[in-house]
Design brief:
Blueprint (H helix, E strand, L loop, with lengths): L1 H24 L7 E2 L2 E9 L2 E2 L4 E2 L5 E2 L6 E8 L5 E9 L2 E10 L2 E8 L9 E9 L2 E10 L3
Parallel strand pairs: 5-11
Antiparallel strand pairs: 1-2, 2-6, 3-4, 6-9, 7-8, 7-10, 10-11
């Protein structure tokens, strides 16, 4: 009887660890799908190529006079026009919001943070959502010149 209890305890511990590990794996944006839209990739940087819809100077560290660009690559499997929403935060205060309609298929959207120049130094984050469901968070920092 004791061996059976030990085996069950061992299996329960193993199952608990797997469940904990898989729930941690989803933290930070690994579950990046909502309303038939999957976020494939998000790039952030100082410069952008509007023809190829891409960030050309990728970074998460900015200076006060830098531009902040973001490209969101996505796959929309529906024919419905989903809404991509971006919220920019400095610490806990919203400093900007943008949104756009996502076309069906694989595409990319380019965004530019519309904030007062120069940017205040400190920690920032960007939240990316589809139809109001948060799918991705990117943190970045503005440091002195």
């Amino acid at each position: 009887m004791r061996n059976v209890e030990r085996r069950w305890r061992g299996w329960l511990v193993l199952i608990g660890c797997v469940a904990l590990g898989s729930s941690c794996a989803h933290t930070g944006g690994s579950n990046r799908m909502a309303a038939g839209v999957e976020i494939k990739d998000v790039d952030m940087g100082r410069a952008a190529d509007s023809v190829n819809i891409s960030v050309t100077d990728v970074t998460h560290d900015f200076k006060p006079n830098d531009n902040v660009f973001v490209t969101v690559k996505y796959h929309n499997t529906t024919n419905d026009n989903a809404t991509l929403g971006l919220k920019w935060y400095k610490e806990n205060s919203v400093v900007g919001e943008e949104s756009g309609t996502l076309m069906p298929g694989e595409h990319a959207s380019l965004f530019h943070m519309q904030a007062p120049s120069p940017l205040a130094m400190g920690d920032y984050k960007l939240e990316i959502s589809v139809n109001g469901k948060l799918l991705e968070t990117k943190k970045f920092e503005v440091k002195g010149a």
